[in-house]
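lol ok so funny story. i was supposed to be doing the assay writeup but got distracted and ended up predicting the structure for this chain instead. priorities right. anyway since i did it might as well share w the group, maybe its usefull for someone
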Amino acid sequence: MGKGAKGKSKKAGKSSGKGAGKVSSKKAAEELEAQAAEDEVIAAHEEAAVEQIQDVANALRVGKGFVLADVDTSGTPGFTGKKLEGKAALKACEAELSDLLERLFAESTTGSKRSLLLVVQGMDTSGKGGIMRHVISVNPQGVKATGFKAPTKEELAHDFLWRIEKALPGAGQLGVFDRSHYEDVLIVRVHDIVPEAVWSKRYAQINAFERKVIAAGTTVIKVMTHISKEEQKARLMERLDRPDKYYKYNPGDVDERSHWGDYMEAYQAVLDKTSTVGAPWHVVPSDRKWYARLAVQQLILEALRGMNLQWPQADFDVEAEKKRLSAS
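and the output, tada:
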């Protein structure tokens, strides 16, 4: 009886697996079809969508008197369109972004020391990973991405900026920090990891460090992806509702939610003390993922356009090389 029950269970499980496979395949096909249809609609709206991009950088820049609590996390500052137009605008600007990043890289081959650093800070689930996938991925050549987690023993043996300096982009590169040196005035403050007498001095140290980085030829863009506590809860719940999202879920994220107010207070201090003329902060409302991606893309584009990047001139006789090549 036991043996028969076991055999039946195997057969049933095998049959169930086949059925699940068919359902999964059908769902995947439907999703691909839906995505293809959306892509066609987006393509048709690209030209008009670009016209709805206004001065995103100025709308998001942190200035004197900025109050984080006043930010509408579902807002779309500097963009007048809706979700469809936002996706279309993002798509429409990809070619220019890729071109400018290639120019930045090309410049370095002739001795230019210029580079770009994007610092992204934000609460868990605020869309930092999505920015990497949907914005930076247009031109992975010359991109140096670093995700900063809890410091190792080796890193703790050095000054808190030691590991940051090691990760800075080289000439011609776009460096992306997923979290950064700002963790050392955020999480350490919220959880009392180091005394206030220590972390309170770090704001000035960070400003001095960033001035040095800028003087060496790196343009710095600092972004806070800002979501509401309610939106974070919804995103965490989605991860629990979908098996393909379990790997993203960290039970510790729920514990961190109890410190939300403390984190907002810590972020306000960061914005007050480290949004400088040379490296201002930009607070990006991120309840709408499509807007956050578009906004960060526009911040990068503005920085790259301001660099007046040029293709390097040939250091050889082009016509002579054409003749040599033809004859070879």
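The first strand starts at residue 115 and ends at 122. Residues 1-17 have pLDDT under 50 and may be disordered.
back to the writeup now i swear
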